Amino acid sequence: MSGSSLREALATVSGRESGWRWLWLSVLLVVADQASKAWIETHYELGEFTPVFFWLDITRLHNPGAAFSFLADAGGWQRWFFSILAVVVSGALLVWLRTLHARRDRVLALALALVLSGAIGNVIDRFEHGFVIDFIHVHWQQAYFPAFNIADA
């Protein structure tokens, strides 16, 4: 192993060049997600909406299930299941992010940081409220897509 390869390997192991350098993005997005949901909670009643464009509404919806309200009517156990699953996945993403090189693997590190922020943002909602707050609602003519939030985006 050459001297520069050894230095690079040691820097990656020490964290200076690891994918953890991308955690700032995850933190920023979790803060933006939680701030936007807090704003929606204080300014909108459940089900209230404001048209922004002919294809976009801002609304307040509660999703006790997973993506696209999967298992929303399952009786409550799904809150804990999806919360635990999100914590486990977040831990795995952190480990994976740590193994990446910040510059060489930047596209993958960016993607993992984005997914991590989404998992954390929604698990905060599940622990705090028992559901996820969604507020971005896209539609086209009579086709309505499931509402989502910044963490999902």
Description of the structure:
The chain has helices at residues 3-14, 23-43, 77-99, 106-129, and strands at 49-53, 56-63, 132-140, 143-144. A hairpin with a 2-residue loop joins strand 1 (49-53) and strand 2 (56-63). The chain has 153 residues and is an alpha+beta fold. It has 4 helices and 4 strands; from the N terminus they run H-H-E-E-H-H-E-E. 24% of the residues are buried. A 4-stranded antiparallel β-sheet has the order 1-2-3-4. It has one domain (19-144). Helix 2 packs parallel to helix 4 and helix 3 (77-99) runs antiparallel to helix 4 (106-129). The mean pLDDT is 84.
Which features would summarize this protein structure in a list?
153 residues, 4 helices, single chain, four-stranded antiparallel β-sheet, alpha+beta
The total of beta strands comes to 4
| Order of strands, widest sheet | 1-2-3-4
- Report how far apart the termini are: 42 Å
The helicity comes to 40-55%
SSE run: HHEEHHEE
Number of domains: 1
List the uncertain runs.
Answer: none
Describe the global form.
globular
**Rg (C-alpha, Å):** 19 Å
- Strand content of the residues, in percent? 15-25%
Would you tell me the structural class of the helices and strands? alpha+beta
User: What is the average per-residue confidence, as pLDDT, rounded to a whole number?
Assistant: 84
